[in-house]
Amino acid sequence: MNARPPANFASDNVAGALPEVIAAVTDAAQADAMPYGNDPWTERVTARLRGLFESDLWAFPVATGTAANALALSAVCPPFGTVFCHALSHATTDECGAPEFYTGGAKLTLVDGPDGRIDPVALAAAIAVARPHGVHNMPPAAVTVTQASEAGTVYAADHLEAIAAIAKENGLVLHMDGARFGNALAALDVSAADATWRRGVDVLSFGATKGGAMAAEAVVFFREELAAAFGERRKRGGHLLSKMRFVSAQLDGYLSGDAWLRAARAANAGAARLAAGLAATDGVALVREPEANIVFAQLPLPVLDALEADGFGFYRAGDEGSVRLVVPWSVTEADVDGFVAAVRGHLADVD
Questions:
Q1: Helix then strand then coil, % of the chain, to nearest 5
Q2: Of 154, 236, 345, 348, which has fewest CB within 10 angstroms of its CB?
Q3: Same domain, 208 and 276
Q4: Which CATH number characterizes residue 129's domain?
């Protein structure tokens, strides 16, 4: 048997699918079913999500996180409005203008904040100066937060509540990009309701792909009026799949028996082990302590070159040896320990 290849920490998208997801899709493939979401799997996913969030929510499966974010924002922001987001948010750095496209031209206004999280004071200031000249400027419409953030951090309850209070005070909708919602929830160790609508979140992009699905997300509305025309938006945006049951089945398997949270906990634990190993290594510095499944560290450039030559996967996050390591749910202790051992070996060579 061949040895396990070097670990790939480039993204949590490198992992395959959870066994529960594969089994659910296989089951969905065994029989005929009505198209366009009129099937038992889609109905069951809505029921599962309502139970999970303890709310009469309205859920719409889609195939990608970009579609979930962009279509969700299009439902809460007019073409002439603006959405406030962090400068590191996926909406502004990695979606190729999809939010602007699907909203029909809305603007993304960047808000500062340390460690990938919006600073409430900075948000309030940005809203206050957003429209000094009436109709000549784009009115504030929504705020989007990324949970867990692209910096590997998590919004605590009081932080999220502060942002929600500012949004509500100014009549804005609060959207949560939950591509890594499972990792955030596992880190917070609270209920899904306490991490979202009870803290003021109005609409959630519920991610599953990074957590163990093949290609499945859901846009979840906690206020019915916001979902009023979303069915048409999803159809027009090309995400009402004719065989929607194969997207819904993934979500059904993902949510069955807490498979998604077990996977998220495994990824978070792998990140904690990786961070501990690197922090205990002379010549390596953590940029910050990880709160979910993303680790940022600083290593000598020759070591990064050597690790890449070994076949390890990761992204460089700057020109000075900063590296971004995303730990997938499929990681093993051997994967983590093998990477740390390689780092130490190459550091010894550099010395």
A1: 45, 15, 40
A2: 348
A3: no
A4: 3.40.640.10
